[in-house]
């Protein structure tokens, strides 16, 4: 009996301890997920930032989802218009009408400051320099399988160190060697198009074709890997992108991973497989050659930097794990964006045969029958105008993100520490108050003699981001863009297929949701 009472007493105290622990966990969680975000929200409201009212624990996610679904249906019926902001970001377009161009909204329990006002952005970026910006922790975690801790995600001194190591890889002196690779890959694609068109296939999915070629180019010119290995990585990257971005609308909601366990595990598995593939390429390169005499492709430069042994510069070394993350970042960031810029260009050129003609004449004049060389790139001036106009209307990077590390005072308002910042590039690029009434028309000439395209504000045109963190690969992209476009335009003419359905949508980048079927005719 006494023994029974003793064990009963023991059980009661275990339950009491468990209840206490559970209570403490609940208190802790409600502080992190509810009380702290609520306090942050009050702070932002007090500083005069309006915005839609969030609910716990989803924030404004449900409203965003609802508006997206309506927009998806209506966009299919939509006329072919370049006024795409309300299609790709319907919730932001609605909230702007109510709360202006700077307001707060919530992804789960994460506060975001939305900015589509270049003047506000300028004032903020004058105060905070590249090194002092954070990247939203919530995305860093979510996108880890894709970017790891590569340059795009690092912060502070670590970002300075990486940017310093990587910058030489993008110096124009390295570009000469890249040109041949770009030309050869594009020529292979052209041969395939010639075969297809001569066997009766007048219609091609140009997005698909260009993406494969851009992948091949980045794989070979930056890591020296061939088409077959490249296809393996690209297939996995694409699957990873689908697993991450078709389902991640609940990012910011505590434990949202458990809402999509299948996709979360799938993303982790794919991320690991890509790491292993890249790791094997790196190991092979390390073994196979004296890296000091490597060709100066991206991996060559990174390996060379990691060979610097003297004590002063030892800190510059990149560990193999870091190399993998950088390779992954370039693989993904380097081919998809460029491929999309080319894809949207061919779409707009298909709608504007008069610009196809002008570009063809320019190519004939500048390149003619000669082999491509670096000096020709600046000569392709009209092509540069077209490129800028495409990056304005259909820029592949639809937004730029930051996170405040410390309070930021902008004029008389304070953006509290840890606030996430979402800069709506699509909105600014389509804002008639910045560009005029012809904002949604394709007019490359607006960039003639004006690198801001006549935009009333210097921060209103941001295809490659801003400040010290601006895209490191933009010159590389411009070179690839001009080479690929010159080669295809001088061999084919393009017009829109009746099967094309205009549905620009966001899956990390801005892409045509149903591809880009074009009628391709050899010249
Ligand atoms: C049309 C093509 C491209 C577009 C639209 C684009 C756009 C961007 C944008 C918007 C950013 C963020 C900037 C910011 O946060 O302020 C960025 C960063 C970056 N891009 Fe690009 N990019 C393109 C091509 C490339 C290429 C070809 C590469 C590499 C081969 C590349 C590598 C990177 C890297 C590594 C960063 C991170 C830089 C840092 O945080 O220091 N991008 N890009």
Automatic annotation (TrEMBL):
One of its GO terms (cellular component) is membrane. One of its GO terms (molecular function) is monooxygenase activity. The chain crosses the membrane at residues 12-36. Its main location: membrane. It is a single-pass membrane protein. Heme binds at residue 471. It is found in: Membrane. The keyword Metal-binding applies. Pfam families: p450. Keywords: Heme, Iron, Membrane, Metal-binding, Monooxygenase, Oxidoreductase, Transmembrane, Transmembrane helix. PROSITE patterns: CYTOCHROME_P450 (PS00086). Its cofactor is heme. Belongs to the cytochrome P450 family. PANTHER family: CYTOCHROME P450 FAMILY MEMBER, CYTOCHROME P450, FAMILY 715, SUBFAMILY A, POLYPEPTIDE 1. This is Cytokinin hydroxylase-like.
